[in-house]
Amino acid sequence: MTVxxxxxxxxxxxxxxxxxxxxxxxxxxxxxxxxxxGPSPLEDGDVVVLTSKVVSKAEGRSVAAxxxxxxxxxxxxxxxxxxxxxxxVTRIVENRLGLVMAxxxxxxxxxxxxxxxxxxxxxxxxxxxxxxxxxxxxxxxVGVIISDTAGRPWRNGLTDIxxxxxxxxVLDDLRGQLDSYGRRLDSTVAAVADEIAAAAELVKxxxxxxxxxxxxxxxxxxxxxxxxxxxxxxRTSAEDMFRQGSAEAYAQGWKDAADGAAPSGxxxxxx
Length: 271
Hints:
By secondary structure, the protein is α+β, with helices and mostly antiparallel strands. It has two domains: 6-55 and 122-258, CATH 3.30.1330.100; 62-118, CofE-like domain (CofE-like fold, Alpha-Beta Complex). Helix content is 25%, strand content 24%. Strand 8 (143-152) and strand 9 form a beta hairpin. Keywords: GTP-binding, Ligase, Magnesium, Manganese, Metal-binding, Nucleotide-binding, Potassium. Its EC number is 6.3.2.31.
């Protein structure tokens, strides 16, 4: 048996402005390409992946900001790490959505001078609205993922992740199942929504002007209900082994020692 899926990213999404109807824009772009043989450009089980930037623009999340750094500060809940470099300072922070990413997700690219773009207020709600609109317009049951770009500990390079989702099994929990040798899986939980977001980015691209992709062939992950959304992908503070950057954790350890305080953070397991 051969297992496969297909990803397509159509042209045709114009510059998005506050108040634009994303459902109408998505449907128009998909109808302009030959991605389906039926009367609808989407099929049951498809996953629609939309870049968060166009969602933010449609939702009016562009704000005046002469200083991007201040906008980052305003969106920051907690600083994880900051590093100076010849071009300035990079800040890795936790934002109000619980996402840990560079610059709190504040985007100054492809926006008018003097403005920056913030992430959607509630990306999961944005995904649910888009899914409901596509179902009402096209009569199909699809999944929707709102994606954004992020880095990863221990790995160079960026990839797209899901920051909003509806109608998609965002985590595939394999714990309790057996591997091919009959051994029990005790910790394997696949981040399906992130994997789909990353696959979609391979055809959308960062500078191609294609913020939309359709993934076909993964209907087994599309659900009848909206589901919990991408929020469940965010690791809680108690489980986060990278809650501080290395330099920050080192400095905190010295401070705790100087103050005679108990070490900050969870206990370190002994070998």
